[in-house]
Specification:
Elements: H1 12-23, E1 32-38, E2 44-51, H2 60-77, E3 82-88, H3 97-112, E4 121-123, E5 128-130, H4 133-137
Parallel strand pairs: 3-4
Antiparallel strand pairs: 1-2, 1-3, 4-5
């Protein structure tokens, strides 16, 4: 990551730019979740949460525990802020059914804990992309 400040996030394109600055070059050793906190003005908090070695299938209890922890941090830093999350895994195989399952599970827990409305991004060893509602409905 560059030592310069990250751009503010006001639109989905801004968020994708921030993710690129944070995680490129792409390449992952394990299945991971990344989370960044945005204050009410769209400024990115300087720390990033990275949960590594996630299981192959979504773990509801792990996600609820993560969401509760993140909600507590967000409440202390800026209750009107939000979180943005990214699901990453090692592969060049493109989006898999398990990715969609993870993004659906992450989306559900983000909504249940009022963590924000930002789209979930995914990344593998070659592609970073946003998961659209159409992707999740498939």
């Amino acid at each position: 990551m560059s030592s310069s400040p990250l751009p503010d996030v006001h639109a989905p394109a801004d968020l994708e730019r921030v993710w690129r600055l944070l995680i490129e070059p792409l390449g992952f050793d394990s299945r991971q979740i990344f989370a960044i906190m945005l204050d009410r003005d769209g400024r990115v908090h300087p720390s990033i949460v990275n949960v590594t070695d996630c299981p192959a299938a979504p773990d509801g209890q792990m996600l609820v525990s993560l969401a509760r922890s993140l909600r507590g941090v967000l409440d202390e830093a800026d209750p009107d802020g939000s979180l943005a999350l990214l699901w990453a895994r090692p592969t060049h195989a493109g989006t898999r059914t398990s990715d969609i399952q993870w993004v659906r599970a992450i989306t559900a827990v983000v909504q249940a804990h009022s963590l924000g409305e930002w789209p979930i991004h995914t990344a593998d060893d070659s592609v970073l992309r946003v998961m659209s509602p159409d992707d999740l409905a498939a």
